[in-house]
Amino acid sequence: MACFIAPMSLAIVTTLFRKKIPERLKIVWLNVMLWGGVIMLAVEHIAHQEVVLYPPFLTAMQNPAEIPVMLQEMATIGVTMTIAILFVWVAMVVISQRNIQSIKKDIKN
User: Fold this and answer.
1) Environment class of 49 (CB within 10 Å of its CB; exposed 0-12, middle 13-18, buried 19+)
2) Beta-carbon count within 10 A of 96 CB
3) How many Å apart are CA 39 and CA 89, to the nearest integer?
4) Which pLDDT tens digit goes with each residue over 20-41?
5) Domain positions in the chain
6) For the CA atoms of 63, 3, 54, 46, what is the dihedral angle to 10 degrees?
7) Residues whose CB is less than 8 angstroms from the CB of residue 99 and which lie 6 or more positions away in sequence, other chains included
8) Which residues of 70-79 are buried (b: 16+ CB within 10 A; e: fewer)?
9) If both were cysteines, with which of 7, 31, 53, 106 could 82 make a disulfide (CB 3.0 to 4.6 Å apart)?
10) Cα separation of 82 and 86, whole Å?
11) How far is CA 96 from CA 36, 77, 102, in A?
């Protein structure tokens, strides 16, 4: 229903503060992964008519009984997806930094 809102929230924050984050952390990689996932999920939700292009936009908001289910999905699935994306990004940055250190070591020798 609205699981894409959790990664979208983080994507907005990282996009707004990207210039304040050190370049070695490759925040651009995280932003691409987050926004790509958000767009993909939004398109999928639009295709399944869970998101519509008129208010209230989220079809779960039309029925008050579905709002807790939507919030539960956002809290469980959305947060889990966001954590998974963060884990992959951290792994990519660590591997990248190790490769850079290895290359610098080879150059010194």
Assistant:
1) exposed
2) 14
3) 18
4) 999 999 999 999 999 999 999 9
5) 5-108
6) -110
7) none
8) beebbeebbe
9) 7
10) 6
11) 21, 28, 10
Task: Write out the two tokens for 59.
Answer: 């079809």
Which amino acid belongs to residue 108?
K
Mean pLDDT of the 2-10 span: 92
